[in-house]
RNA sequence: GCACUCGUAGCUCAGCUGGAUAGAGCACCCGCCUUCUAAGCGGGCGGUCUCAGGUUCGAAUCCUGACGGGUGUACCA
């Protein structure tokens, strides 16, 4: 239910009715339960304009306020309007939501094609913990947009093109082409190849020559290259599978895919005068103090920026995207700013296409330094995930009796859930220090808290065994708050999707689960002595809570289990 | 040098389309399992929201500056 939209409309109507000629501001969620559910703070700002006391203005607004959603509007302090929502209206909406697969969340009226570019691992190395953020934030964003009705095209812009591949295939050839087993540990393979490259100049020359050969389409080199890419992609898919990320091979649109378009991109930029030559390279300039965007090197080679421009053109003109979101580390802000500006200037994307860099902070080590692949201190992503599952297993064994299969499922669900939640629950623009304990914690505000709340509810519903029915009757303030929180789901989701902020969802879910836990402690459901109508009502509140938690976590890519 | 970003409780973080006594988790102290899962609930402790100005009826939130951390800054991706 779009609560804010409805309340804002009610306020706008009240303005019109009261003859107030001004654009109302938006209602806010109330800071404290005593202040109602929502508050409207627009009266104070009007005082000067209307030359009237703010409380009097508030009274005029309240007198004209007429909405079935609002049970009571009170004026407080200097002119706050505290809105108390109607339990009758909310109950009806909640019942509707409960019987709807989408929990009452409307599909967009005008869906668009939205491209989400995320994960983008380098094929020369294994994924490490630094790749976690792009992968799971991007996946969450894609899921949210898709759920809201957009046609989402996931794009995994893998790094499969560049100088390292000459080195890798030269080394693979040297080992003997049958030796693909040695690629199983890609990190070790990379290190060994690098060592050969650094120590033997003849080998280095061959590696460089192979780069050219791949790019010019030499069949044998291409075959070797494809072998490396395939195995490397297999590693990634293993991680995606374990992580529960929705990316598939269909979503891969590698750097090499754009290779053939690069010359025409540069040509276009040159023809339009967007790119000019400087020190032999083709550059796009922005300002005195700003380094240019180089689109073609002095030696004729193309760069990262060129590929991104080609990708942008492709996404806007072939895929017809109207929103293109790059989920990439904040360190590349300037790069994207320049690439977007260049694409616009050259008309590679239309004015009506939203280009956004969904920047996220860097994951660092304890010294505040970003993880580096070649420094040995890197944690492989697959190792983190496996460790999470092991620790989850230990925690499970302490707390209950499960059979073997159940242990596997539950450990994976809560272990992976913990890792993803630890990351998603923080604002994405924050840097943070990688910490095993934090990633693998099961206490407090973690995925497990929500998963536990979910399992508790499912247990009650299982025990009851039938579908609850009848009205939802609010018997106390706690139930009212739970009900309001449940109906705030759509507003939260809309904002999270619009701003690409998965942490809005985690905050929401934590609050919801907290309210449910309190409700659970204080308001018995199946116990003796509970009035039958109240029981039916509470069962429904519990049911919708479970469904909302499951859906919300699901959009974040976090699973639930029926029993914990 | 220039640009971007962050600076909130001992630690990790919410809150930042300006609003009423600034919220969680962890840690620490106390209480609650003979009835729906104690991975939980209740209570306590803990803050000059980095600092200084400004805008405003009202600033953790907006603007300017300083300080501190991180990052980027011409042919890597």
Cα-atom Rg, whole angstroms? 28 Å
* SS class: alpha/beta
- Give a quick account of the main beta sheet: strands, pairing sense, barrel closure: 4 strands, antiparallel
Distance between the termini: 31 Å
Uncertain regions spanning at least 5 consecutive residues: none
- CATH top level label of one domain: Mainly Alpha
Percentage of residues assigned to helices: 40-55%
Multimeric status of the protein: single chain
How confident overall, as mean pLDDT?
93
CATH architecture of one domain: Orthogonal Bundle
What strand line-up does the widest sheet have?
Answer: 1-2-4-3
Q: CATH topology of one domain, which one?
A: Isoleucyl-tRNA Synthetase, Domain 1
The count of strands amounts to 13
Characteristic key phrases:
564 residues, alpha/beta, Gyrase A, domain 2, Isoleucyl-tRNA Synthetase, Domain 1, 4-stranded antiparallel sheet, 4-stranded parallel sheet, RNA-binding
Mind sketching the topology for me?
Elements: H1 3-18, E1 28-29, E2 38-40, H2 42-50, H3 54-64, E3 70-76, E4 80-85, H4 87-98, E5 113-117, H5 132-147, E6 151-155, H6 163-175, H7 186-199, H8 201-215, H9 219-243, H10 262-271, E7 276-278, E8 281-284, E9 293-296, H11 304-317, E10 323-329, H12 333-345, E11 354-360, E12 363-364, H13 381-399, H14 404-424, E13 432-433, H15 436-439, H16 447-464, H17 477-487, H18 489-499, H19 502-522, H20 532-555
Parallel strand pairs: 5-6, 5-10, 10-11, 12-13
Antiparallel strand pairs: 1-2, 2-4, 3-4, 7-8, 8-9
Helix pairs in contact: 1-3, 2-3, 4-17, 4-20, 6-7, 6-8, 6-9, 7-8, 8-9, 11-12, 13-14, 16-19, 16-20, 17-19, 17-20, 18-19, 19-20
The protein binds one RNA strand of 77 nucleotides through helix 2, strand 8, strand 9, helix 12 and helix 13.
